[in-house]
Amino acid sequence: MGGRIGHVSVVVLVLAFLGAGAPALAQGVRAMSSAGVSLGSGVSAAAAGQSRYDGRLGVMFSARLDADGRAVTRIDGDGLTVVKTATAFGEVEIVVSFKEDRVELSLGPNAIRVRRGPAQATLNPKRLTEADLAGVERVIRGSRAIRAFKQLTAQIEFTDAPDDGFTLGALVDGALVRFLDGEVGVVHRLGHRLRAQRRARVRPASLPAVRSQFPDCWGEYELTVDGHMDTFIECVDDAGDASWYLQSLLAAGCELDWVMRAETAAFQYLACAAVPIR
C-alpha cells in the first residue's frame, strides 16, 4: 500500500471535533426548516436546493437540506452517481455507483465502514492499522464506480477553475475515496489548493452588525478548512519525528483526520447557506 507499513494505534483528534456543538447546530437547522425559512423563492429551506450543470465536466451537481436537517449532495453524469448525506453529528454516508457497481461508505466517530456487494470492511479511527487499510482496499479493488469517481475528481483537481461548493465537495469526497484506495498525497495537494485559492482572493471587511445578520458562509468555510490544513501540517511534522517504520501509517492517520474534519465543515457550510451553494 505505497509505504504504509507497521501496526500502530493512531488517536484521531477529529473525534472530539465531530461532536462539538452538533446538537445546537442540528436543532437550529430543524427549527429553520419547520419555520419555513425562505431562500427567496418562497420555498422552505428543507425542501429547497440548488443545482448546476457543469458542461466542462459533463455532470450535474445538486444540494439540499432534507426535512430532518441533513445535508444531501448529489453528482450525476455519464453513468456515475454520487450521493452524500451528512448530519450535524459527524455522520456521513456516501454512495458511489456506476451502472451496476455500487460502493457504500459510512463515516462516524467510531467506525468507517465500506461495503461493496457482499464484501465489507471497517476502519476504527481510534486505532488505524495497516491490516484494516488493506482490507478496505480489497473491498473496493476493481470497482468501476470508484474508478469513475476518481477520474472525475482528478479532472476537477487538474483544472485551473476556482472551486465552488459543488466542486470542492466533490474533491473532499474524492480525497476520502482516493485515500481509502491507497493513493498517497491527495490530501496534501487538496489542502494546499484550497489555501492558495483562498489567499488569492481579497475579501472586503464587513461591519460586525452586518456580518452577524448575513454571515459569510463560504468565507467561514474556507477559513475553517484552511485552519485544518495547519493542523494537518503539524500532524505530518510530528509523524516525521516518529520511528521510520511508523511514519507512513502515522501520516495516513493525519490524512484521514483532515478529510473527516473537512466533511464536517462541509455540512456546517451547507447548513449556514441553507442551501444556496456559492
Task: Explain what this protein looks like in three dimensions.
By secondary structure, the chain is of the alpha+beta class. The chain has one domain (14-273). The protein has helices spanning 14-19, 22-34, 130-140, 144-157, 165-180, 186-200, 208-213, 217-240, 244-273, and strands at residues 49-54, 59-65, 71-77, 80-86, 92-98, 101-107, 112-116, 119-123. An eight-stranded antiparallel β-sheet has the order 1-2-3-4-5-6-7-8, covered by helices on one side. Helix 4 (144-157) packs across helix 5 and helix 8 (217-240) runs antiparallel to helix 9 (244-273). The radius of gyration is 19 Å and the shape is globular. It starts with 13 loop residues before the first helix and ends in a 5-residue tail after the last helix.
Secondary structure elements and pairings:
Layout: H1 14-19, H2 22-34, E1 49-54, E2 59-65, E3 71-77, E4 80-86, E5 92-98, E6 101-107, E7 112-116, E8 119-123, H3 130-140, H4 144-157, H5 165-180, H6 186-200, H7 208-213, H8 217-240, H9 244-273
Antiparallel strand pairs: 1-2, 2-3, 3-4, 4-5, 5-6, 6-7, 7-8
User: Over all CA atoms, what is the radius of gyration?
Assistant: 19 Å
Number of structural units classed as domains: 1
Q: What is the approximate shape? A: globular
Helix segment tally: 9
Beta-strand residue fraction? 15-25%
Provide mean pLDDT, rounded. Answer: 74
Structural class: alpha+beta
Strand order of the largest sheet: 1-2-3-4-5-6-7-8
Proportion in helices: 40-55%
Strand elements, count: 8
Helix/strand order? HHEEEEEEEEHHHHHHH
CA-CA gap between termini: 37 Å
Described by strand count, sense and barrel closure, the largest sheet is:
8 strands, antiparallel
Return residue spans where pLDDT drops below 50 for at least 5 consecutive residues.
1-47, 204-214
